Records
---
Amino acid sequence: MHAIKLTLLFSLICLVGFAQKKKYDIMKPPVEPPSRADYAVLEKRMACIHRNTYSLGERLKFFPFNQYKKVMLISFELPEPSAEINIAGKTQPKNHNEKEFTLALLAKKQKLDQTRIKENRILSALEIDKLTDILYNFGYKSTKSYKGLLIGDDGYSCYNPRNAIVFLDEKGLIAEYIEICFECHRREDSSEKIKTGEFCTEKYDLIRKYFYTVGIKYGTGKNVH
């Protein structure tokens, strides 16, 4: 009998608590979507600003620059779906997708297939200095939240990569890479360990112009937005 009374009392407490929660939920004002003014504030915070946060020595401690000294910039043209491609020494059937091609081209622990690359450039020490400066010393003007909103940009829904930053090991094999689609403002990294810095609004354009300056023209021209 005592157990029954306790059960009834507990049930009554739960009902009262549920009723109060329902009342509180009804009284809460509806969540309003961010206004244009809110987005304008966030966009200003997403803009790039250059800070001398990291010296060259500090920048070279970020992975994968701390592991691989040979850094190459490349451009490549995606094949027509009707073309045959070679993956791991085997000819693949036609009507492949673009992802299969780039995975085959940038397969780790393999040599780059020069026949499928349009342009390539091994970076000098001074050029690596400039690249790491863009990656790590350009960042958001502010990362603070605004009215509970945080900055973020996943790029466009498209993805047609034509360029990559490739890290080669001492044997000249692909160790890591950062595949980039400048047109869609998106990228794919070969490892979660890769540090690329903050991709503020102008970061893709800064890297694109850098590629173009060192001689990688395909995928980085003025027609790419």
Note: The CA atoms of residues 36 and 60 lie 40 Å apart.
---
Amino acid sequence: MRNNMTGRKTSGARRQYANDLEQAAETLRADIQQGRFVPGQRLIEADLMEHLRVTRGRVREVFKRLEAEDLIQIDKNRGASVRRVTREEVRDITEVLEDISILMIRKAARRIDRNGNRQMLEESLAAAQKFRNSAASFMKVQAFMDENARFWGSLSAAAGNPVLSEIRWRLQSRLFRLAMEGLTVNANWNKWITHHEEIIAHLLDGQVAKAVREAEESMSDVWEAILSLPDSAFGK
């Protein structure tokens, strides 16, 4: 009886350990994807023990997990830091993102009259128009990346495929990890948000082919704008 009790306690402890580890990894993953920790920033174990409310050993396990996901890098003499994204990686990511985004648009078009999607896209259209009207007043790269995330998030929700949405978010979040703090867009700021309104308008009108063409042009402009950022934004 005592052995059974011990076995149950051991099993329960293992499950708790796994749950705590997963929660800590998810928290740090979200912090990196949302910009709380920026590319190149060192991750201090003592600070993360307090932030994640876990032991030093658990922090190191989290580091190993996120290193496997290419979110952080661990250097022998410097410890862990948020991994920078190279220009080549950006090119590879955008190639895949484009195909996924077009699939998402086609799915959103098929579901336009389900689950309040039409109203949601109308609201997204209004938000895109509002952002464009005020865009010239703030030129930080982060603001434009946030607007792109909001825009594609609305299409993702309309597409109604959580797996597709998760894949796109994970790829897109890698672009968010560019060193954007303090960087401003160049004179062609409108390239960062071009065609957003047109894409939604065509979807609402049932013109899927036109929406796809606008999306292809939009993404091409955004990728060009990202790759035109200075070398300081990228890893090596």
Note: The mean pLDDT is 85.
---
Amino acid sequence: MTTLYESNETAWNLLSRGKVRDVYEYAPNQMLIVTSDRLSAFDVILPTPIPDKGVVLTQIANFWFQQTDSIIPNHLVDPDPFSTDAERKHLAGRSIVVHKAEALPVEAIVRGYLTGSGRKDYEKTGTVCGIELPEGLVEASRLPEPIYTPSTKAAIGDHDENVSFDKTVDLIGTELAEKVRDMALELYRFGAGYALERGIIIADTKFEFGILDGELILIDEAMTPDSSRFWPADGYEAGKSQPSYDKQYVRDYLETLDWDKTAPGPELPPEVAAKTSEKYLEAWRRLTKS
């Protein structure tokens, strides 16, 4: 797949290309992460880019890194390395330089509301990933307390696998598994409270952590519309599907198509791409503009 950057980025060695982010060797023990306008849905990268998406995701993640660095350090070295570089202005706003950390093989998912795969699990078993919940919950119900439901990180094209907390202990050890769980819950509580004051419900979110110089740090992204479900707080009502500021709008459109959710993904109509871009931009404005 041709990306927005292939004809421009020649100075660095490409280390990996993810669903959304391209990672380059930048300097000794540092990486350059470029967030593209690509969008994935149902673990498939769609061929239609979403205008401004990469900039929005980068700026929201940088905002949270700054807001939460007193809770846990993060990988950020330079939040906008090309802001004054005219030759690379196409990278401004969507690129960061980070420390190279050892990524943990666990995705730290925190759920504050019942929706998505969690609701399907609850309807079958009365639990979410083995965690018992009260009876009578419905779509979009707020949970009594946020719950930690980790998963393993899948390769591109594969689905992440929900795992038990005990499985994370097997993967990374008891002490580190407990620290990841506790830190993810603390970050979510902080972020969810902050966002709610600005009219956004963070229904659930995913964090990734790494080890740098023997210490746990936050890496990848933090509480963006790609790693979270963002709902407008005004008009929230449990028992029904909520409007969103994230890619759920695209998922809902794709559900109307005769598509088997395998690659290649379908092109998005211009109006769907434009509306999705508006939702991302609105989330950015609400969260970060005082």
Note: The two ends are 39 Å apart (CA to CA).
